[in-house]
Automatic annotation (TrEMBL):
Region (Disordered): 1-23, 143-169, 427-452
Feature: compositional bias, Polar residues: 143-156
Protein name: PQQ-dependent catabolism-associated CXXCW motif protein
Organism: Stella humosa
SMART domains, per the entry: RHOD (SM00450)
Comp. bias intervals (Basic and acidic residues): 443-452
Ranges for domain Rhodanese: 57-146
Coiled coil region boundaries: none
InterPro entries: Rhodanese-like_dom, Rhodanese-like_dom_sf
């Protein structure tokens, strides 16, 4: 399964979003090495090679050089890249043909991908990305080693990010705010495939597939099943029916937990509709948090209206990578048949039959009535709170309280746990039990996630 293709296109750009998520099946300028190939390389001890651990945990592959700071996003002309060149030059003794192997957790971890890109950009011609990571290595029953090791750093200079902090931790710089719209999220390379079913037309991203395809709904699914776009609707809806309530009822059909709908705002309606509103949504399903953007388009009729919900949704940790392009892809879904949503039949009904249609929907709506006030309250949260959520979800950052009383700090998604000292230093780790005060003369305090 370490070669599983998620349909994520390879890129030469450093990944700046959530580090946990599906990765490409290949890497430009380098090669993907499998568990079998890496085991042969290590055990053969003939071809010169260096294995870099970019995960930063206690357990590593045998002989791996710890260098999790190589995974940091940024650019190929930043300070990290200069220090990466120095480290690689030291480890290879100046030989560009030495095989450089980079690994992290699994095929759903971008950290080693970033590190491999930095090596490729530094001019190394034999870069091997171990996409399966330590999970694939352990699944094959191969040995590992345990024990804290000092991160590799550039000799003769100040330590790079990832080595300035206590042992086992990675020094991290807070995320600088960028102007709105200044993100660097890119849609998958390749052409959107224009498809058409009996009732809908749509644009299918590379690697995606059609899920449900019926008269009242169409869903398009990502290769890993953790993202989707959809359109679903009904004709014969009562006039002036609240769009957010319509969205709540339709999304509730997926049986989510803790479904939340944000404040509505005007939006461009779907093709064939006259008006629309959109709002941010979030929920949990099977223990996984999801986020997305939903829109309800309305087409008024004589005594009723047709309402259609379009939405772009992904697992929360993947949303930063989808936010800039997936909603636009969802907008390409449109009804191409007069019978979609039951519109043709509704237009042929008289007012009495339309009322009967509404009654047929009553039982489905009633069960959610008791929860509606709670949804309304959640929707009326403050503007500051909404802006905070947008910044975190679309900006690929996480906000932490500063334990020394300074303003909250936005940190990258690279690590789950952060600590701060009095001098404005920050270190990160994925080990919940690690303590930077052990063996350190400084005072480090844990940073807690915060909201606004």
């Amino acid at each position: 399964m370490e070669r599983q293709d998620f349909g994520v296109p390879p890129t030469m750009q450093l990944h700046a979003g959530a580090m946990h998520g599906p990765t490409p099946a290949s890497i430009p300028g380098g090669q993907v090495i499998t568990t079998q190939g890496l085991a042969a390389l290590i055990q053969g001890r003939q071809a010169p090679h260096v294995v870099f651990d970019v995960l930063g945990q206690r357990e590593t592959l045998p002989g791996a050089v710890p260098a999790p700071w190589l995974a940091q996003p940024g650019s190929f002309d930043d300070q990290v890249q200069g220090q990466a060149r120095a480290l690689l030059r030291q480890q290879t003794q100046g030989r560009n043909d030495v095989a450089l192997v980079f690994y992290c957790l699994s095929r759903e971890c971008w950290m080693s991908y970033n590190a491999a890109l930095r090596a490729i950009n530094a001019g190394y011609t034999n870069v091997l990305w171990y996409r399966g990571g330590i999970e694939a290595w352990k699944a094959a029953g191969l040995p590992t080693q345990t024990g804290r090791q000092q991160d590799a750093s550039q000799p003769g200079t100040s330590p790079p990010p990832g080595d300035a902090g206590p042992r086992g931790f990675v020094a991290v710089q807070p995320v600088a705010r960028t102007p709105a719209g200044g993100g660097d999220r890119q849609r998958p390379a390749g052409q959107l495939r224009i498809g058409q079913s009996r009732f809908f037309s749509f644009a299918l991203p590379p690697g995606w597939r059609v899920g449900e395809d019926g008269q009242f709904a169409l869903t398009l699914l990502a290769p890993d099943g953790q993202a989707m776009t959809l359109m679903l609707g009904n004709a014969g809806v009562a006039p002036n029916y609240p769009p957010t309530r319509f969205a709540y009822e339709k999304l509730s059909a997926m049986q989510p937990q803790n479904l939340r709908i944000g404040q509505q705002r005007p939006a461009r309606p779907a093709a064939g509709f006259q008006q629309a509103v959109e709002f941010e949504i979030s929920y949990q399903a099977r223990g996984i948090p999801y986020r997305g953007l939903a829109k309800v388009s309305v087409a008024p009729a004589y005594d009723s209206q047709t309402m259609a919900l379009t939405a772009a949704i992904s697992a929360e940790d993947q949303w930063p990578s989808y936010a800039s392009w997936l909603p636009a892809s969802a907008e390409q879904i449109s009804a191409n048949n007069g019978a979609a949503f039951g519109m043709r039949g509704i237009m042929q009904q008289n007012l009495q039959n339309s009322a009967a249609f509404g009654e047929a929907q009553r039982q489905y709506r009633d069960w959610s009535q008791k929860n509606w006030q709670g949804v309304t309250d959640q929707r009326n949260e403050s503007q500051d709170r909404r802006n905070f959520a947008v910044r975190e979800n679309l900006g690929g950052v996480q906000t932490f309280a500063n334990p020394f009383g300074s303003p909250p700090v936005e940190m990258p998604m690279t690590y789950k746990h952060y600590w701060a000292d009095r001098n404005g230093g920050y270190v990160g780790t994925n080990d919940p039990g690690a303590d930077p005060n052990v063996g350190s003369t400084g005072e480090w305090r844990r940073m807690d996630r915060t909201g606004r």
